[in-house]
Amino acid sequence: MNIYSVENYQPRESVGYLMTRVKVEILAALDRALAADPFLSSLGVTAAQFVVVVRLVGAGCKKSASDLCKELSYDAGAMTRMIDRLESKGLVHRARCVKDRRLIYLEVTEAGQAAYPKMIEVSVAVLNRFLRGFTPEEAQQLKVFLSRMLENAG
């Protein structure tokens, strides 16, 4: 059974539109919260940079810029500039693969590892603000629904 039809589709009421708006608002709120934190603002960490650092810290394996582009839907040029900024802030560094010198992996530096817990703390506060009024069960149900949509994408 289809949820939408040409007759009932209202773009500004669609699930896609609402999810996009929520994402934009979460990132904007995260930008403000990161800028308001004295430690993180001294590093100049943005929400977009936070997303990259989180992917690298939680990777469990080394990631390349190409890997991140695929995961985050960034173009190569934008990712290169992002990595340049993170590297200039001392949060990430590029390291050549010893087995294949053509490959360059990204690693979070000690400074990035030290900033990571504070970044998570700020992110948790922002997400909790967006989930205000939800019960824990409703928040879990939302995660299940969003996960199901991601599964349907594949």
Which descriptors would you attach to this protein?
single chain, 154 residues, mainly alpha, Arc Repressor Mutant, subunit A, 3-stranded antiparallel beta sheet, 7 helices, 3 strands, 64% helix, 8% strand, globular
Task: Describe this protein's structure.
This protein has one domain: Arc Repressor Mutant, subunit A, CATH 1.10.10. It is mainly alpha-helical and 154 residues long. It is globular. The protein is built from seven helices and three strands; from the N terminus they run αααβααββαα. Strands 1-3-2 form a three-stranded antiparallel β-sheet. The model has no long low-confidence stretch (mean pLDDT 93). Helix content is 64%, strand content 8%.
Judging from the principal axes of the Cα atoms, what is the shape?
Answer: globular
Portion in strands? 5-15%
* Proportion of residues in helical segments: 55-70%
Q: Tell me the major beta sheet.
A: 3 strands, antiparallel
Structure class: mainly alpha
CATH superfamily: Winged helix-like DNA-binding domain superfamily/Winged helix DNA-binding domain
CATH class: Mainly Alpha
Number of domains: 1
Distance between the termini: 19 Å
Put simply, the count of helices is 7
CATH fold topology: Arc Repressor Mutant, subunit A
Strand order of the largest sheet: 1-3-2
How do the helices and strands follow one another from N- to C-terminus? HHHEHHEEHH
Work out the radius of gyration: 18 Å
Number of DSSP E strands: 3
Question: What is the average of the pLDDT values?
Answer: 93
Low-confidence stretches: none
Q: What is the CATH architecture assignment?
A: Orthogonal Bundle
